[in-house]
Amino acid sequence: MFFTPAGEELWVDGWKPTYVYPRDGRTESGMVFTTGQCDELTIWTLADFDREAHRSRYLRCTPASRTSLVEVRCVALDEASTEVWVSYELTALNAAGEQVLEEFEGERFAAMIDDGARKIAACRELLLAASIC
Questions:
Q1: 54 by DSSP, 3-state: which?
Q2: What separation in angstroms does the CA of 126 have from each of 9, 27, 33, 45, 66?
Q3: Distance between CA 16 and CA 10 in Å, rounded?
Q4: Out of 14-18, 78-82, 93-97, 99-103, which region has the weakest mean confidence (pLDDT)?
Q5: For residues 120 and 11, is the Cβ–Cβ distance under 8 A?
Q6: Which residues constitute the domain of residue 101?
Q7: CATH no. for residue 72?
Q8: How many domains would you assign to the chain?
């Protein structure tokens, strides 16, 4: 559950979603929450959540610049290891969006993903002990 909105609050710096539906932040298909503010206000919808298959698909819209489909899939390799796939389908809405999308190219995207892996590893025990909905 590390990659749910509530789970990411434990390891992503500055991640503080405002839960719209359900208000308690319970992870379920159809949930809606927002992050950011001003030009970075982003509206997220959890389009598909399959707890048993360890898969989530989010639609997110930052109206000032871009839209995205984000998919996260996790597969247990053994009792201590999980392989995680994160994919983004991004659409710029204007020139500002095109600039932001450059951050998702090549080495910058790899560095972003690697940084997430390091943060998860650093707080693994806390995450495993957490009760995340």
A1: coil
A2: 12, 19, 24, 27, 33
A3: 10
A4: 78-82
A5: yes
A6: 5-129
A7: 3.30.530.20
A8: 1
